[in-house]
Structure formats: C-alpha cells, structure tokens
Design a protein that fits this description.
- The complex is a heterodimer of chains A (105) and B (316).
- Chain A is mainly alpha-helical and 105 residues long.
- Chain A contains four helices and four strands.
- Chain B is an alpha+beta fold.
- Chain B has eight helices and eleven strands.
- Chain B has helices spanning 6-10, 18-32, 42-56, 59-69, 106-112, 142-147, 232-237, 293-305; strands at 134-140, 149-160, 166-177, 186-189, 205-211, 217-220, 223-230, 239-243, 250-254, 263-266, 279-285.
- Chain B has a four-stranded mixed sheet. Chain B has a three-stranded mixed sheet with strand order 1-5-4.
- The N and C termini of chain B lie far apart (74 Å).
- The chains are: A mainly alpha (105), B alpha+beta (316).
- At the A-B interface, strand 1, strand 2, helix 3 and helix 4 of A face helix 2, strand 3, strand 4 and strand 6 of B.
- Strand 2 of chain A pairs antiparallel with strand 4 (186-189) of chain B, so a sheet runs across the interface.
Chain lengths: 105, 316
C-alpha cells in the first residue's frame, strides 16, 4: 500500500444556500433546459424568488436533488411528471415523520 | 459463470405474458427503487431486476434467453454454446452502456452485451444507464456535522478492462464533511464519477449524508433533541441541572413546577448553519425506587400529607 496522502476533496453542499443557474442545474441533471422548465411548470422545483425572466432563474441545491429524483422516478417507474411531483412531496413528508418517530420512540 | 434465472428474479411464470412481466416489473420497481426504498440492499435488488426486465420485456431477447436457458437452473455453471444467437433476428436498441452507474452481470454481458446482442444503435435508458454519476451514502457522527471533519470513503467502481470485461475496482477518497450538514443532504463532487466513454466528460459523485444513530441525541433537521431525566424535586422545586450537548456540558435552569414532558430550548445550540438549529431538552421525571425502609417511609409521608389525585381531570 502506498502511503502517499491523497488530497482532501471538498464538494458543493446541495442545500438552500447553494445557487445554480438554469444551465447549471440542467447540466447537473444531464437534461435539456426544457425539462427543468417543465419541472418548474409542474411545481416540482421553484426558482429562487420566482423571477419572470428565465435568464434570471436560479435554483437551490434542494431543487437539484428533487429534479434528479423526479427524472429517475419518471424513467424507472413510468409515472408522469404530476405523479413524480406527488411522490417527491410524499417522500419528504415520510422523511419528516420518520425523524419525528425516531425522536419519540 | 452462473446461470441467472430471470423469471425467478422477477417472480413470474415462464409462460407469463408480456403484460404480466411489465406489471411484475412495475410493482418490484416501486418496492426497490433506490430513491424510495429503505431496504438496505435496494440498489442491488433494483439492478438485478432491471437486468431481468431488460431481457424479458424484449420478445426477441426473451425468446433467445428461453431457448438457451431451457435446461438450466439459477446458480448452475453456464457456458453459452458458440453461435447460440444465430437464427434470431435482433432489432438493436440494446442496453449496452456498461460504463454507467449500474452494470449488469457477466452473465448478461456475455449474452447481450459487448459484441453480442446489442448490435444496433446504443441508447441509454432507465436508471442503469443513466450516465456516469456515482452515488454513495456516507455515515457520519453528529460531532462531524457540529465541527466539520474529513473522512475517508471507499467506493466500488465498475470499470471495463482492455478485453471489454467489467471489473470492480476499489477506490478510496478523502472528503471534507462541511460543518453544518444535515441528515439526507447531498454533497456533489464534480468530476469524481465514472470516466466518460468516447468524448463524454466525467460524471459527478453524489454523497448523501446519513447520521449514525446516537445513544441519546435525536436529530430533526438542524435541531437536536435530548430526553433529560430529572428527579421529582428538581421538577417540583426547580433548580440548575447539568445537560450534555455535542459542544460540551451546560448548566440549565429548570423552573419550579415543571411537568414531565416540558420542552425547553437552548437557542442556537443545534447543528450550525446560516440559521443554526436549536437544542431541545425534554424533561422526563425519574422516580426513585421505594426499595428501602427510608424511601418507603418518605413515599408514605407524601401519600398522607399531600392531598394529590393525579387522575382528577379524568373525573375519578
């Protein structure tokens, strides 16, 4: 085993404070910008501050996580966008309830 | 190489209709989808099923597989006869992106993979071939989120060797766990996924943060909860008690007349962040055992001198 020390990598935390442009979020999801626009129309993701101009749209890291999940759910389970949106919201709700259950249990 | 029984994997009959196979797949996919399932081996199961479905959903592949697998059972040693796929007409559109996050078994690759079945245009589809992004969960301690830390993680990375076989390589990475991460949060390491094929760029690596369960702290978002045992007199008379927090022991004042279950907040002592979480203490009154004459006498004295009916609100 070589003992050379490897560099320590730092990543981008995909949270509420991280900001991605429409192009960046599309690239990170490997989709066309049109797909992200559809997600916005369906309410799966929401641009920060809801500006009218698409050029000014930015998204949080949470939106990236949701967009990627929506795409996987659609591809793998054959559900439409509205269904994927519902699944995402319910999964987040279940996650919150699980945490609460863990605290009370 | 072991023979894989795709019918058994999907729990369908050998003479199931295409519709039945599709229904079985949808049902299993909902159960084991890695984004939904909490089963520990969901991802592996999901990939197995995806592979089975990839073959059984395509009537051409299914017919070839049936022809080939007539006399085999799952796990049996298997070698495809030379020219086994002659005489079948394949329309292409095969699933051949072995560099993707999900890689099919050697069994599949031999039959339908490189240079075999997938002669047509290669196209990516479904979770398996989604690209070169990698995902990993990383278990951290609450303390790591409080202070930040660097952790070494080990990943199993599928790779294609010079002969076109798929091998798994172990890769270790040192990663910074930033201060203030939350349960379920993802960290994106750009360019740390699988290498692209041809002109394709490198994928990304997504790390999902998961906290190791703590013996007495419970975490909800950025807030931390602690059940704090207090004596009946501490709750009744009030007082100052010691409270453990992930950043050290603090003194906390309990007001007189505190009930069991009373929630007290230590503001900003949760997981740090732009808006730091809070630390919540829930009082749990702990009773001394009446296991000595002295203790029994004290309980007797309370019974006689305190006119206390805990069930007054129940009307009894």
């Amino acid at each position: 085993m070589p003992t050379t020390s490897k560099p320590i990598l730092s990543g981008l935390i995909l949270d509420e404070n991280c900001r991605l442009t429409l192009d960046e979020i599309s690239a990170a999801c490997s989709v066309h910008t049109e797909y992200i626009i559809e997600l916005v129309d369906e309410g799966v993701v929401e641009p920060v501050g809801k500006p009218r101009e698409q050029q000014q749209w930015t998204f949080t890291g949470r939106s990236l996580v949701r967009a990627r999940k929506a795409r996987r759910l659609q591809q793998d389970l054959g559900i439409n966008l509205a269904g994927a949106a519902l699944v995402l919201d319910m999964m987040e709700e279940i996650e919150r309830l699980r945490e609460r259950l863990d605290r009370l249990g | 190489m072991e023979f894989r029984d795709y019918y058994e994997l999907m729990g369908v009959d050998r003479n199931a209709t295409q519709d039945e196979i599709k229904r079985a797949y949808r049902k299993l996919a909902r159960k084991y989808h890695p984004d939904i399932s909490k089963e520990p081996d969901a991802e592996a199961k999901f990939k197995e099923m995806g592979e089975a479905y990839e073959v059984l959903k395509d009537p051409e592949k299914r017919a070839a597989y049936d022809q080939l697998g007539k006399n085999y059972k799952a796990g049996q040693d298997f070698t495809p006869p030379p020219g086994w796929d002659a005489g079948f007409e394949f329309s292409g559109g095969g699933f051949g992106d072995a560099g993707g996050a999900g890689v099919f078994s050697d069994f599949f690759e031999t039959l339908f993979g490189q240079g075999g079945f997938a002669r047509g245009e290669r196209q990516a589809g479904g979770f398996h071939a989604r690209g070169q992004d990698h995902h990993a969960k990383i278990l951290i301690d609450l303390e790591d989120a409080m202070h930040g830390a660097s952790r070494t993680i080990t990943l199993q990375v599928p790779e294609i060797d010079s002969q076109g076989h798929v091998r798994t390589r172990t890769r270790t990475l040192n990663v910074n766990i930033p201060r203030g991460v939350k349960q379920g949060q993802q960290i994106r390491l750009a360019g740390q996924g699988a290498p692209g094929i041809g002109q394709g760029g490198k994928g990304d690596l997504y790390l999902e943060i998961e906290f190791k369960p703590h013996s007495f702290y419970h975490i909800e978002g950025r807030d931390i909860y602690l059940d704090l045992p207090v004596s009946p007199w501490e709750a009744a008379l009030g007082g100052t008690v010691k409270v453990p927090t992930p950043t050290g022991t603090v003194d906390m004042k309990i007001p007189p007349g505190s009930a069991s279950g009373k929630k007290m907040r230590l503001k900003g002592r949760g997981i740090p962040g732009k808006t730091a979480g809070d630390f919540y203490v829930l009082l749990k009154i702990s009773l001394p055992n009446a296991d000595s004459d002295r203790a029994k006498a004290l309980y007797e004295q309370m019974k006689n001198e305190l006119n206390f009916n805990p069930r007054r609100n129940l009307g009894v």
